[in-house]
Amino acid sequence: MAKGYSIFSILKHALRPSEPWPEAWAKPEPKPNYDAIIIGGGGHGLATAYYLAKNHGLTNIAVLEKGYIGSGNVGRNTTLIRSDYMLGANTAFFEKSMQMWEGLSHELDFNCMVSHRGRVVVAVSPWQMDGFARRGNIMRLHGIDAELLSREELQKEVPYLDYSKNARFPIYGAIHQRRAGTVRHDAVAWGYARAASQLGVHIIENCEVTGILKSGNKVVGVETSRGKILSDKIGIAVAGHTSQVARMAGLKLPVESHVLQAFVTEPVKPICHHVVSWGAELFYMSQSDKGGMVFGGHIDGFNTFTQRGQFFKMKDVLEAAVSLAPFMSRLRLLRHWGGINDMTPDGSPFICTTSVEGLYLNGGWCYQGFKATPASGLTFAHTMANNAPHDLNAGFALDRLMKGKELDEHGIGNWTYKQ
Ligand SMILES: Cc1cc2nc3c(=O)[nH]c(=O)nc-3n(C[C@H](O)[C@H](O)[C@H](O)COP(=O)(O)OP(=O)(O)OC[C@H]3O[C@@H](n4cnc5c(N)ncnc54)[C@H](O)[C@@H]3O)c2cc1C
User: Fold this and answer.
1) Long-range contacts for 225-232 (Cβ within 8 Å, ≥24 apart)?
2) Is any atom of ligand 1 closer than 6 Å to the C-beta of 40?
3) What is the pLDDT of residue 19?
């Protein structure tokens, strides 16, 4: 297994190209029991395993993944990171995640291609500019960077939008978070998998959890497609399948599964140097390192587990693209795909203990789970190790919805109708 990437290992492999690189993470057979099991080998499950091993010394643990590492939303998202929240628990949590991205490639010894290219959200009315000012001020009071751009300042930074008199929606200005940006999504999964494996974590692919075993109200293990595996500490981190897996332990969650689509065009020369979002409709775009314009919008809007989108939503998103940035009409669409998002009533996640002893929940990430990956892993590991939340995820308990403590930003930060 790879011990470390360095200039010497690159030189060695350059001089001996026939010698294969060692596997990035080990592929062990499952053991009959572990001190902790994490269901789901997406970004959150792998990050949790890594921080459990690194920060809490728990190394006899397994991540059980029904497919292969990166086959879920961690490899399907549009890679946007930001920390432009304004409600209590969200603000501190997402800013912590942003700070963790800044050093992650060094920590994992894996280039996650963190790009602080900045994100602008374009305002289409004066009252929206007022809302952005309010959000920006709250962010700045919490030490998070935010700038309000006038229409002229925005036009200088992002000249290719539709500033004409005939624009479908007039542009008034924007809010800009310069530290926001993008991160290479599958590198995050591979980096955490490799680092966790080096600390002794078992990453078991092609191992679907089909049942959660209990003795009274305590978990004792899981049934899987590769047999029974015992543990009295089980964390659920299965994103779009959260409600299904929780139901295996008798929990009914306020979570719905919806498909969210993303799109990429043919590659073109560098034009879009930021992530650009729009205040008129949930729409955002960025340009990949290969040159393709990557963009997306809202969920399709009905419950489904099918990882494939519907035409009507595709039409809405493409209309938004062309209305905001007319040059997009000249590009050919290369691919579009879907992923299953676990949507909660207030758009904020759950990282918490549950009413079943030894069972922990990480889910309900809606549109925003990728950017949360480092802080989610850190705090879920803390919660599993101590059977109590970290300060940063204390607000993400299941019972917040029953106590009038909703965190209602719809998971989308700076957008029109939530101002
Ligand atoms: C199109 C799209 C665009 C998005 N864009 C962004 C964005 O720009 N920024 C952002 O912050 N967020 C974005 N998101 C949301 C983000 O991708 C998710 O919230 C986040 O990736 C979910 O966490 P995860 O990485 O752990 O999920 P996943 O990678 O989905 O991991 C869950 C894993 O659990 C496994 N699993 C499920 N059931 C079982 C079982 N029974 N047994 C074993 N394993 C099981 C799955 O196979 C999967 O690998 C986007 C989502 C989509 C679909």
Assistant:
1) 225/66, 226/30, 227/30, 228/32, 229/30, 229/31, 229/32, 229/33, 229/34, 229/37, 229/62, 229/64, 230/32, 230/33, 230/34, 231/33, 231/34, 231/35, 231/36, 231/37, 231/62, 232/358
2) yes
3) 86
